[in-house]
Each structure stands twice: as C-alpha cells, then as structure tokens.
Specification:
The chain is of the alpha/beta class. It is built from 14 helices and 23 strands. Strands 15-16-17-14-13-19-20 form a 7-stranded mixed beta sheet, sandwiched between helices. Strands 10-9-8-11-12-22 form a 6-stranded mixed beta sheet, sandwiched between helices. The chain has a 3-stranded mixed beta sheet with strand order 1-5-4, covered by helices on one side. Strand 6 and strand 7 form a beta hairpin. The longest helix has 30 residues.
C-alpha cells in the first residue's frame, strides 16, 4: 500500500488542492512506496503565506529563545537519527551508514547555528562626532526559500535552515520529489523542539513549486543546490525578482596524484571518494589525474579495491553478514543515463578496467543497481570526461607533469572541489594557489569544509557570491543596518540653527 506525502504548513501536514502526484520509489527494489503531492500555484501560495504569517514574530523573538529551540532540535535529532537514516535509505538508496554520515554532517551546521549569537553581534563607535554615536545590527530577512536536491535530502537542507532559523527567518523548504519524506520528518521534529508553527514549512512539488518560490514577492532569498543548468535558471529568475540568491551548481572534481604520493593511501581515497554514495554527490571524485609514471601501478591498485565493493540493498535490515558498501542509484532513468555514459566512454576508446554495467547486486532484481566502473586512458575531449555523470564512474587521465594537471583542472568549466595527493609540502602549497577551485583537499579526497567555514565552488559551480553556512551563510540570511544617533545633553544644549550644507563630522 502506498502512502501520500503532503506539504507542511502552519505546524501540520497540508494535503493541498492539486490533483497532481509523482511516484516515490524504493531504489533497492524498484517498488513504488508512495506518492508525493505536486503543488499547484494555489498550494504554493498557501504554504508561503503560512511562513509569512510566522516570520515577523519569530524575527522579534529573543536570540536566547531562538538558540534554545535550535539546541532542542539538535538533541532530538541526535536521539532519533536512525529514524531519519532509514527514511533516506528507503527513498534515496544510499546505505544506512552513509545516511547516518549525511545526518552527522548536517548536524554540524545545527551545532554551528547554536552559537550564532556571536556572529549576530553588531559594532558600536561612540562619539564619532560631537554627541553622535553609531552602531550596527544584523536583522533577519523574513521568509527564505530552500530548493534542495535528491542526493542529500537531510544534509543539504541542513546547510541552510539551521542558520536561517537561528537568525530569525521563516523557511520554506522545497525538497526533491524523488525522496520527499525526510522533509516532513524534519518539520515534525522542529515542532517537537518548540519552533512556532509556520517558521519551518515544506512545499512539495516540481517546477510549479520552484517558480512560485522564485517569483513570490514574499520570499526574500533563495538557497539552491543542484545541476548547473538549473542553478543558472534559479539565479537568473530569482535575481530578476529582486531576491538574493546562492545557487550551487554542478562539478567535475579532479584528484591529482603526484609520483611521490603514497599509492595505497591514494588508491583508498580514490575508491572512497569516487564510489561513496554511488557517486551521487557533487563532491565526488570523478577524475583521477595520474602524473608521470604513477598511472599503471595506481590503476591496478584502484581496480583491485573496486572489485571488492559489495553493491546491494543499503537498509539496516538488508544483510545479516555485513552492510552493503554501495546502494542503488536513485531512479531507473538515472541508472540508465549513467550506464549510457559508460557506453559512450567505451565507444570513444577509453579502456574499461572495471565494468559496473553487469553488477551482481545483493537485493531485489528490480533495484536500480550499477556497479563501480573504472576507466583508464580517458582524454578531455571524451563525453565521459566533459559531463557531470553523477554516478559511480571514475575516469583516469594520464599527464606527464604537475603543470599539465593544473592546466587540466583550470580549463574545466566547473570549480567545485579538487584534491592533490603528495608528500611534497612545497607542491601542495603551490597547488593551493595555482588551481581556480573553491574547495581544495591536500591528501583529503572530499574537502567538504567544517560548518564554521563556508561551502561552495567557483566558476559554473556557483551562481551568486555567497557560499553555504559559516560566516557567509550568516550574512546571507541577515542584512546589516547602521544607526547614527544623537541624544541631547541637557547640560550642554546646542544652539541649533539652519545649515543646508552637507553634514560634517566635527
């Protein structure tokens, strides 16, 4: 029996009035487990209005009270994270331990938001001119929208909403229709934590819901994570409607291995970063750049490790002997699309070292499984190199020198993440300056920063000028105000008089 997944407004589920629905599928079995409401324009207006009705009072709520609610949410999430992980696995397909890891990284931002009071402090300058003081303050925006992707149904929204809520805003979350249940679970948890009704709302749907958020005069800001073409659309549309926007787009992340690197460590890192979460993450390593004579040995080590990966149902109950290492892809259509990239790479002349197209997965035959795939001798003109595949496909590109490796990275349209593996500190230090990429790992393959630093790339990996969480996130969800004041001292009252010239500081 399938369940119907609704919106969330004014502290409770909201069925909406639309007669449009989309199937929600368990990727491990291919079984349709639910249907999610796809909002009409009227449904979107109702959810946004619920947030608008709550925003002003929440923005005036004391900072102490707001942080208490965020901290209560943290405690509840820690106690019940297995419930959320099970929902993620059932609708996204990632293995249970990976789902718990996603929640843990999102929880870091919740914990960062618990200390937001320090970052909301204003400044003060007394007696800047005779009898005149100046102070600054940061205030919430009002209603903000979050449009999140399928690959991290908990973590990506948590990059944004803890900071937005702690800063005094009301949030409308538009999750992916592929795995929407986590959003309602989070909404119910916020209610249990004491968040007033309407401060966290959920709008389910497709482009109708997205456009309603981008065009609504009530919504003041949009945070988006997804593919580059959609990020561009979100940025252009929301900006045209007067909103501030942080739109994080696609990636093609390179991992450079220099000849002096520890090849066992590099091989482990390449496999973990290339195939974790079935490659469905914007920080996955999809290109390994082997410098000099290192390639043959490194490819052999990666291949040996790749062949040991257990693909299968990632739910906690699926396998008694051990949990699968990698689950299915999110939909059959996406599985087939990723497989078509493997076909393309093979036809273009890349060497298929490990082929995931005929994987013997543990689990139901109807699951959307694709095994880890390793290509060697990939060249930059191949489609498998140019395109963001978003699946468990790792391509090895061979270059002769460090300079060639850097040129390859900098020529790419994306600038999300990159990594270098080396024991040469000078080379690593130079690499940090040489590459035009927003997040860099030195012997760290997935350089996602901790929550008090900000997440985001360069070039076509980011539209807008503000990254997620950290100080940049706090500034994104607040705006500055400067107050210049003068209080008359009755013992030294000025004489006054007319002065039409530009005010002077004396």
């Amino acid at each position: 029996m399938t369940t119907t997944i609704a919106h969330w407004a004014a502290g409770e589920p909201f069925a909406g009035t639309s007669d449009r629905y989309a199937d929600v599928t368990n990727p491990a079995t291919g079984e349709v487990t639910g249907r999610v409401a796809l909002a009409s324009a009227e449904d979107a207006a109702h959810v946004i209005a619920a947030a608008d009705a709550a925003a002003s009072a929440w923005g005036r709520t004391s900072l102490a009270r707001r942080t208490q609610v965020v901290f209560a949410f943290r405690e509840l999430l820690n106690a019940r994270k297995d419930e959320l992980a099970a929902l993620i696995t059932a609708e996204h397909g990632k293995v249970h331990s990976d789902a718990l890891g996603e929640i843990a990284r999102g929880q870091e931002v919740v914990e960062f938001a618990c200390g937001i009071s320090h970052l909301l402090k204003g400044g003060q300058s007394p007696q800047v001119s005779t009898g005149i003081d100046v102070h600054s303050r940061r205030e919430p925006l009002g209603v903000v929208g979050i449009i999140s992707p399928f690959n991290f149904p908990a973590m990506v929204p948590m990059w944004f909403f803890p900071v937005a809520i702690a800063a005094g805003n009301a949030v409308v979350l538009k999750p992916s229709e592929k795995d929407p249940s986590a959003s309602l679970w989070l909404a119910a948890l916020w209610k249990e934590a004491g968040l007033p009704d309407g401060v966290f709302t959920v709008l389910q749907g497709d482009k109708v819901a997205v456009d309603a958020l981008l065009e609504s005069p009530v919504v003041q800001a949009i945070s988006f994570v997804g593919s580059t073409p959609i990020a561009e659309y979100v940025y252009e549309t929301a900006s045209r409607h007067g909103k501030r926007v942080q739109a994080l787009g696609g990636a093609k992340n390179h991992m450079v291995v220099l000849p002096d690197a520890d090849l066992d460590i590099a091989a482990d890192a390449a496999v973990n970063a290339g195939y974790g979460s079935a490659g469905e993450r914007c920080m996955a390593v999809s290109v390994l750049v082997a410098v000099g004579e290192v390639a043959d040995d490194l490819v052999a080590r990666i291949a040996d490790r790749t062949r040991t990966i257990l693909v299968g149902d990632g739910s906690a109950e699926a396998g008694a002997e051990r949990e699968a290492d990698m689950g299915p892809l999110v939909t059959k259509a996406h599985r087939d699309k990723v497989a078509s990239f493997i076909d393309s790479g093979e036809q273009a002349g890349a060497k298929v070292v490990v082929d995931g197209r005929d994987v013997a997965a543990r689990g139901a035959a109807g699951g959307f499984y694709l095994g880890p795939t390793l290509f060697d001798h990939v060249t930059p003109e191949m489609e498998v190199y140019r395109e963001e595949i978003f699946g468990p496909v790792l391509s090895v590109v061979r270059v002769d020198t460090y300079d060639e490796a850097v040129a390859l990275i900098n020529a790419n349209q994306y600038g999300n993440g990159t990594a270098i593996f080396t024991n040469d500190g000078g080379a690593a230090r130079r690499f940090e300056s040489d590459v035009t990429v927003g997040m860099i790992g030195v012997n760290v393959p997935v350089p996602v920063p901790v929550a008090y630093y900000s997440f985001g790339g360069w070039k076509k990996s980011l539209f807008g000028d503000t990254h997620a969480h950290g100080v940049e996130g706090v500034h994104f969800f607040t705006r500055g105000k400067v107050v210049t004041s003068r209080w008359i001292d009755p013992a030294n009252r000025p004489t006054g008089g007319l002065e039409l010239g530009f005010p002077r500081n004396d």
